[in-house]
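Figure S7 source data.
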Amino acid sequence: MALWRASSIHIASLLGLLSCLILHYTTTTTTVAAIRARTIIHNPSPMELPIFREAPAFRNGDSCGSKEVDRIHIAMTLDANYLRGTMAAVLSMLQHSTCPDNLSFHFLCAYSDAELASSIKSTFPYLNFTVYRFDSNLVRGKISKSIRQALDQPLNYARIYLADILPADVKRVIYLDSDLVVVDDVGKLWDVDMEDKVLGAPEYCHVNLTLYFNNAFWSDPILSKTFQGRSPCYFNTGVMVVDVDKWRKGGYTKKVEEWMELQKQKRIYHLGSLPPFLLVLAGNIKAVNHRWNQHGLGGDNFEGKCRNLHPGPISLLHWSGKGKPWLRLDSRKPCVVDHLWAPYDLYRSSRHFLEE
Ligand SMILES: *[C@@H]1O[C@H](CO)[C@@H](O)[C@H](O)[C@H]1NC(C)=O
Ligand SMILES: *[C@@H]1O[C@H](CO)[C@@H](O)[C@H](O)[C@H]1NC(C)=O
Ligand SMILES: *[C@@H]1O[C@H](CO)[C@@H](O)[C@H](O)[C@H]1NC(C)=O
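Tokens for the predicted 2-acetamido-2-deoxy-beta-D-glucopyranose complex:
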């Protein structure tokens, strides 16, 4: 079994090279409609799950602690259609982590699908992970149609219920979408000083929040005052550090649900699970360095056009938007940024091919 070590120099030079290429060859779109995505195109039967290569073993550096407080908890959803993305995300974290043995993964799954869990197990034999069943009935009645069908999948809302699903001894968790790779030590994100905040994420204060809510919201004398006394900024819910303890004590699940219920009665926004998060928390989060969510690489919500990297250092690349790197690579029409995802792809074949 080979032992892989994080190779950030390699990534850095690759990024440098690619950003030059990107400047020359891609079309830039101006929309900042970066939201996470979950597409369920069909529900493949377990036997149709793709086959992945086994990831190598990763071992802790000498500086790693052995106390329970040294453990890093990561939560992600687990879905057959995004499995290839999940595998790449996990591999990227193990590969760049200083203490890979101390990562604990918590996967939220809409069905109790033993095949998904065994796929993770055979790809990452040494991974410490737990699969939880997310009861989609919790949200089914609360989801209203958004502008993109993929955003309306119940599992997309699972992040709201993290604090209820995770064991009580988990006090902090990093929630991550499945369409991203981490190219830095995730421990640095884990160690962010949350101050007294319940949620930490990069903030984008230049984004005009007005556009995320409709006229029914802004013309209502009470609703339109929701953000009064705060300086609300857009944040992407695909990368969040959550103080689950504070979330539980503050009853945040209920607060987010209440906005979803209002949306169901009286349409006040266009997107899926993002706006209720903004309504409850925008202007009251811990701002994390932008390097932790280079989002929008999947392009816009309608066409998924190629997007540039934003300037500045990068610790996490996120293909939010319609396009997904594995689909574009398979279609042989990848965007330049998709080549940054490819090194983490563990996909070997679908079961239709002969095995080696
Ligand atoms: C971190 O990993 C080391 C090495 O495997 C192990 O000895 C230690 O107990 C781990 N700490 C936690 C909190 O899991
Ligand atoms: C795996 O992580 C859990 C916490 O999520 C911990 O209780 C358990 O001891 C860990 N198992 C191993 C083998 O480190
Ligand atoms: C935000 O968008 C609204 C609606 O298009 C516009 O009226 C408002 O001036 C914009 N605000 C800023 C700060 O650009």
